[in-house]
Amino acid sequence: MTGFGKVIAELSSKKITIEIKALNSKQLDLSTRMPSAYKEKEMEIRSLLLQTLIRGKVEFNMHLEYIGKDIPTRINQTAVESYYQQINTIATDLNISLPADWFVTLLRLPDTIKTEINELDESEWIVIRNTINDAIDQLTKFRIQEGEMLNKLFEQKIARIKELLIEIEKYEGERIEKIKARIIDNLEKVAEKDYDKNRFEQEMIYYIEKLDINEEKSRLDNHLKYFLSTLKDSHGQGKKLGFIAQEIGREINTLGSKSNHVEMQKIVVQMKDELEQIKEQILNVL
Asked: Rounded to 10 degrees, what is the CA torsion of 144, 146, 147, 148?
């Protein structure tokens, strides 16, 4: 299920932005990006996310921006002076021209810029953790809104399949009459010929059972009711709804193969279309 949360926390000398984005996925696939100063808290952050988000392709990003004069990056004056003296000496010894822009050249050399990594202050971490929880809450609210829309969509689609199932009934009488007429016509053709009556009765029973759709209609109706009741349960029912949708599809397919009637087959196609739309959105359900 998709979702997004973004919260900014401002400390005395820095601004921390927490962004969490979730996309559809059958499993929980979590990736994190954060400044090296907070790497020691990565496992705790992952634990916070895993406890709440359950499923989805989740991207966690922490951005750090220094807003005060006191920044951890320093120019290593000792290294700069050492490089300067060495370059001067080499240039003199080898008769090489000195750089046109000394400062740019020197700052590109290794170890001239260093970043001091201070231990993470506990009070600062408490602020960051609360900010992460606020971002998770935002994402969760986003998911709840999407879930409410999906719930309405599923109810509409299931109701439509039920309507189509009822529509099938008005063609059953016509379908049965056509089947009877076909059987009678065939009986008249074989009436003058010798045939095994027991075998004929067995074939007739098999033929009638093969075309009977009452059992499929009943099972389909039960699956539709079960889908709606499962939809009302607590979260974590996405996979279960997927299994029920498969069973609904199985009964619809059987109806189509047994219907032997043009109008009924058209209704079955409409049922399949409604079900496919349900299946596409079930991936968004936790």
From this structure: 90
A 10 A CB-CB count for 224 gives 19
Closest by CA position to 24, among listed 242, 247, 250? 242
- Radius of gyration for the alpha carbons in the chain, expressed in angstroms and rounded: 36
DSSP-assigned letter for residue 110: T
Structure tokens at 74: 């320093």
Whole-structure pTM over 0.85, yes or no? no
Beta pairing class for 28-33 and 14-23: unpaired
Q: Is the pLDDT of residue 256 over 80?
A: yes
Q: What is the pLDDT of residue 220?
A: 95
Question: How many Cβ atoms from other residues are within 10 Å of residue 127's Cβ?
Answer: 14
- Structure-model confidence comparison of residues 101 and 17, the more confident one: 17
Closest CA to 6 of 18, 23, 21: 18
**Which of 111, 100, 102 minimizes the C-alpha distance to 75?**
111
Amino acid at 274: E
Biggest distance spanned by C-alpha atoms of the chain = 124
What are phi and psi for residue 120, nearest 5 degrees? -70, 125
Beta bridge partners of 189: none
The predicted-structure confidence for 115-174, as pLDDT tens digits, reads as follows: 665 667 788 889 999 999 999 999 999 988 888 898 999 999 999 999 999 998 888 777
State which amino acid sits at residue 211: L
For residue 37, give the nearest of 143, 146, 115 by alpha carbon: 115
Is the CB of residue 92 less than 8 Å from the CB of residue 65?
no
